[in-house]
Amino acid sequence: MPDLRILFFALFCVHPTRSSLCPLGCECSEAAQTVKCVSKDLRSIPSGIPGYTRNLFITGNQIRRIGPQAFKGLDNVTTLSLSNNRICEVESHTFSTLRSLRSLDLSSNQLAVIHPEAFTVQSRMLRELNLSRALYNHSSITDLATSLRWSSLEGLLGLDLSSNGLVYLPPRIFSHLSSLRRLQLANNSIVSIYNETFSGLEYLEELDLSLNALKTFREEGLLELEHLPRAKLNLGQNPYTCTCGIEPFAAWLNVSQGKVVDVERLICMFPVDLRNTSLLTAARLILGCHRAGEGDNLALQTSYVFLGIVLGFVGLMFLFVLYLNRKGIKKRIYDLRDTCREVWEGYHYRYEIDSDPRLAQVSTTADV
User: Fold this and answer.
1) Which of 65, 79, 124, 339, CA to CA, is 20 to 30 A from 367?
2) What parts of the sequence cross the membrane (predicted)?
3) What predicted TM-score, i.e. pTM, was given to this entire model?
């Protein structure tokens, strides 16, 4: 009988202790080394997360800011998901205590302030960073660019920036991600690829630029794609405009079909008469651009030549008229010279009288 009391007492004591290891509102599984705090209206990262945790999911809450105090003591966490929490600010060194972190998901948040060293991880083991639908607006890309430069992300392999409404990418934004293999930029509003947009990504293997606002790739954009020798490209579902300016891109596609995964699905959206025409055939359909351009240049050159002839003729006529009237012109010049001399002598005489009082007195007497 005493043994039963001891057993019941032991069970009563041990059970609360085990349950207290899991924060209120979370579900913990020591066997799976996983903690889930999903849609519990949490306002901050809960304290008391077990040290055994390797997979931590805190999603669907009301957490506005995260900082370096939030994840202390969680050395074993390898996968951290903070999606859909309405996070608007990430402080510097927020994740620096997560020494084993390999995957970080911040998707579906409202990041307006990203501090320069927000993604610094001491072990530099972070491999996947998901920022899909995470930026508050397209201007947040400036903060992100600074953070990617200052944070220790040399080992990052995958970066997802899809669905952020991005209009442009700052030059060299990815230059410090030298190990990056996968870059997702789909479903944004990127209008053009400029020089040094993808600088430093020599080892990139996948680049998704589908569902953007690209009308064509100009020469500097094509050079950027050429600087990604290993990358497979997704360029579909963009509003390509098949006018003369797209010919270099169409020609590039014809010689780089193995590089573009969805090349067969790249079609013209404008003008209307070429809509749904494959870009692979567009170059042949609008080759007349070169001929039209050459005709325009020829017409312009002809106009310049004709204008030069007319001006030359007018100049010759002017010189001829001057030659015929050379004697009259010479006489007019001499008359003008004599007139000017007389006026000058008169002024000079008046000046001498005014400057000498005696001469002025003589002049007055003479007048009388």
Assistant:
1) 339
2) 304-324
3) 0.75
